[in-house]
Amino acid sequence: MLAIFRKEVNQFFSSPIAYIIMGVFLTAVGLLLWVFPDTSLLENGYADMGTFFNLTPYVMLFLVPAITMRSIADEVRAGTLEWLLTKPVSRWGVVGGKFLASWLLVVVTLVPTILYYITLYQLGSPIGNIDSAGVFGSYVGLVLLAGVFVAIGLWASSLNDNQVVAFVLGVFFCFLLYVGLSALAGLTLLGGLSYYLSLFALDEQYRALGRGIIDTRNVVYLLSLVILFLLLTANRLKST
To answer: 23, 28, 194, 210 — which has fewest CB within 10 A?
Structure first.
């Protein structure tokens, strides 16, 4: 697993792909939070990062599948996956190494956004008048949500050897779990089923962590989704 992880990380950062993705993400989020008047933090009149944490998952819906779309699909298309699996590395080693490398790239992309917190901390009246516990919980939720999106993206990449198809499938499944379940839960015709759908909706789990209290139930659920999709990916490699 460690060898695969190092290979993927080196491949990411030795090419312009990682820097382009990071640049696009930071530019998009920066424009939304500091320039566009409808979403600008400076227009709120108070130090709050709620807008950032509300908008970032929607940007990640496209960012993460863009990172993972080539992870397995490209290996299958090039015929290197079978060669890779003949080496002394298990399917779990391949999946785990690729997952950790992609997750690391997303986390590294999020690190510069801590400057937003520092800026708002200084702009608060008085200085430091910001919900730091809520910010910490939201960052934990964002990192875990990124892990779920990466696992989904890897699974989508294992379904087809076409990177574009893998990207579209990754966006679709991430959107379905993050937005779709909540939308379905809002339908009154589902009756009591709506409550249970809302419990499994990713956005509900994510927002719960943003309240400043790290509930282990939310953490366990998000990590369980990561493991589930990694299992599905490993099983898919078995049949490839």
So the answer is: 23
pTM above the 0.85 mark? yes
Distances (CA, A) of 37 to 32, 33, 42, 52, 144: 8, 9, 8, 14, 29
Contact 102, 21 (CB under 8 A): no
Tally of domains within the chain: 1
Tokens of 141: 């939720």
Interval 53-101: pLDDT, tens: 888 999 899 989 988 988 888 777 777 766 666 666 677 888 899 999 9
- d(CA 163, CA 72) in angstroms, rounded, equals 9
Segments forming the whole domain that contains residue 94: 2-238
